[in-house]
Amino acid sequence: MELDIKSNIETQVGKSLRIKNITFQEMKLHNSVSTVNEVSNEIGCEPVEVLKTLLFVGEFCNILLVLSGTEKADIKKLSTMLNQKIKLATLSQVFEITSFYAGTVSPFLIRKNENLILLASENILNLKNLYFGSGVSNILISMTSFEFKRVFKGKFI
pLDDT (tens digit, 9 = 90+) per residue, 69-85? Predict the structure, then answer.
């Protein structure tokens, strides 16, 4: 599959990353994708390299959790760690809290929100390349785990 990899796509997330001097690529997809396996097949990477950005709504705060494509969120463990009940956000909550539509959520350029905790699996740091949402449905961002660690403002767990 041939992808359009261009430096002039200019998503809002991409603009933000450029300002921070982060090395990355924006990749325009030719087909609509909605699962890790579909993304993996479309761009020719391993499913583990496709990041999932999940939003949970809690009693006291909300949690944005970034996982590799093969990991599953352990809601019970997360609830215990944060000492609060949590549940997966609804589609409208995702947009309201992140300003991104579900399926496009990027771990970057999230509106500043003191009630939002950013967490990422430390397992993604063992991967070379990462692919994740740009905030736009047909565009992915690709970067190394080194660059991801440089720019991610949350905690690795």
Answer: 999 999 999 999 999 99
Instruction: Give the integer Cα–Cα distance in Å for 39 and 91.
Output: 20
Q: What φ, ψ does residue 34 adopt, rounded to 5°?
A: -140, -5
Exposure of 51 by Cβ count < 10 A (0-12 exposed, 13-18 middle, 19+ buried)? buried
**pTM, rounded to two decimals:** 0.90
DSSP helix, strand, coil percent of the chain (3-state; round to 5): 30, 25, 45
Rounded Cα–Cα distance for residues 32 and 30 (Å): 7
d(CA 103, CA 70): 16
DSSP state of 111: P
* pLDDT tens digits, one per residue of 119-152: 999 999 999 999 999 999 999 999 999 999 999 9
Structure tokens at 105: 């959520």
Here the tokens at position 22 are 């982060």
How far apart CA 124 and CA 144 sit, in angstroms, is: 10
Residue 49 in tokens: 């390299």
